[in-house]
Amino acid sequence: MRRGLAAGNWKMNGTAASLGEVEVLKTAHPAPAVDILICPPATLLERLSSVASGSAIATGGQDCHPEKAGAHTGDIAAGMIADAGGSHAIVGHSERRADHHETDAIVRAKAEAALAAGLVAVICLGESLDQRESDQTLDVIGAQLAGSLPDGLTGANAVIAYEPIWAIGTGKIPTIEQITEVHDFIRAELVARFGAEGEAIRVLYGGSVKPSNAAEIFAVANVDGALVGGASLKAEDFSPIIAALETAKG
Ligand SMILES: O=C(CO)COP(=O)(O)O
């Protein structure tokens, strides 16, 4: 059985004061029945990793550059995430695909760089509202899976996050039937491409996950956890989401 994963993406939020939230989570979840991951802004990764050290909380970056090093002002290499104590790298988030014009090919190259640095790649995909309303969701997700996923993915080196763009930060979530349909589709595609490992790769749902809706989302068989934005910033919101995942998947 796949172990649940509660992942927090702090996006461009957080300062040194936010490290206190991690202290609270550490105390509240000393031996969780699921995995916990926090991806803070790069400025906090090393400090947060040190606060989380010795606890059940893993840390990661929100992006990585495809290259190992070089003249790429403002970018961060996967090896630097590992050096700062991170074990995961989110790649292909819709905000990066939109703000930084990242294509599936770029996302794939970034995921490959993450794997080469020994990180777990958390590869994000999801449809826009237009695509959802014109019934293209599964086509879009299929194309993103085909284009963004490197070869050789396993349950140990990759996580997929399905995040419908229109559900991110909006308070709207798809119906449970829609979440079930997409997650079942992703699972089938993963198994078709990666065989038994496709069964082991965790598939997270992301987009307006809150303490109030977490339990119903986690009840879906092929939802293995969540990639949480806003509700991961405060321990008082993230902690009940972790607890709901423990109840559903622990
Ligand atoms: O984009 C997300 C996580 O990567 C989801 O963000 P919200 O939980 O704030 O909707």
UniProtKB/TrEMBL annotation:
Subcellular location: Cytoplasm
SUPFAM superfamilies reported for this sequence: Triosephosphate isomerase (TIM)
Keywords: Cytoplasm, Gluconeogenesis, Glycolysis, Isomerase
Active site (catalytic residues): H93, E163
PROSITE patterns xref list: TIM_1, TIM_2
Domain of life: Bacteria
EC number: 5.3.1.1
List of residues binding substrate: N9, W10, K11, G169, S208, G229, G230
Protein's pathway: Carbohydrate biosynthesis; gluconeogenesis; Carbohydrate degradation; glycolysis; D-glyceraldehyde 3-phosphate from glycerone phosphate: step 1/1; Carbohydrate metabolism; erythritol degradation
Catalytic function, reaction form: L-erythrulose 1-phosphate = D-erythrulose 4-phosphate; D-glyceraldehyde 3-phosphate = dihydroxyacetone phosphate
Principal location: cytoplasm
Pfam families reported for this sequence: TIM
Entry's Gene Ontology molecular function annotations: isomerase activity
PANTHER family, per database record: TRIOSEPHOSPHATE ISOMERASE
Family: Belongs to the triosephosphate isomerase family.
Functional note: Involved in the gluconeogenesis. Catalyzes stereospecifically the conversion of dihydroxyacetone phosphate (DHAP) to D-glyceraldehyde-3-phosphate (G3P).
Oligomer status and interactors: Homodimer.
NCBIfam families xref list: tim (TIGR00419)
Name under which the protein is recorded: Triosephosphate isomerase
Organism per entry: Sinisalibacter lacisalsi
